Fold:
Amino acid sequence: MSTATAKTELEGAELAAPDRERLAELLVGHERPPRPSALSASVTFGWRAMLKIKHVPDQLFDVTAFPIMLVLMYTYLFGGALAGSTEEYIQFLLPGIMVMSVVMITMYTGIAVNTDIAKGVFDRFRTLPIWRPAPMVGYLLGDVLRYLLASVVMLTIGMIIGFRPEGGVLGVLAGVALLVVFSFGFSWIWTMFGLLLRSEKSVMGVSMMVIFPLTFLSNVFVDPKTMPGWLQAFVNNSPVTHLATAVRELMAGNWPAADIAWSLGWAGVLMTVFGVVTMRLYNRK
Structure:
């Protein structure tokens, strides 16, 4: 069939779907590329997040300068008062401050989603023939590198000022892996707020209202045993407390099965609940 004939048939007759696709192939001259898989689409959007960091490098401030400032400030301000020496306090503090910093970084996922919506980029994503959750998963995959970079920065500065993990390399890797998994699940909260709220300032404000009480009312800085009983009840059941304890113990060479289970359980629940809500909002946006 010639191209001219194909055009005539396409313009002058109602054709079945297979015939329309066959004629379209003739007009184009080659077959359509296959639809990307869910993994391929998600990784592509993750790579997009990395390119944004490349072109706007000041985004790395929150995963480099900010964690260094936290580690140094809390170690030298409170180390002597709380533990008698900075060398002793850094063994307790560093895993906790890693948890606090990475959990705080998760809010930038929601800010990135909201920014793309405001610029109209998100409307383009929804028209693409891809797996529907791919843009959301891509945002989160891109942020995983930010979590890893923040962890490496804090571990490096901690080692310089005296942190010595008795669990060795395996203990450190296990702690960082658990932290990244939890943060991936926790980030789904902010994708929901990124879709719900009107501006990135609103997303940041709500995020701070949730993150600050959750991280400070935990065992990141001190042992909860010194707190009032009513506060201990909250702190001991906080997901951040379970995570900080698990990371701390893994780096110390122990295996805190209960806290690891709680951390993974919280990550699974957050991912399931807020992932479903996020996708419903995304489909209605």
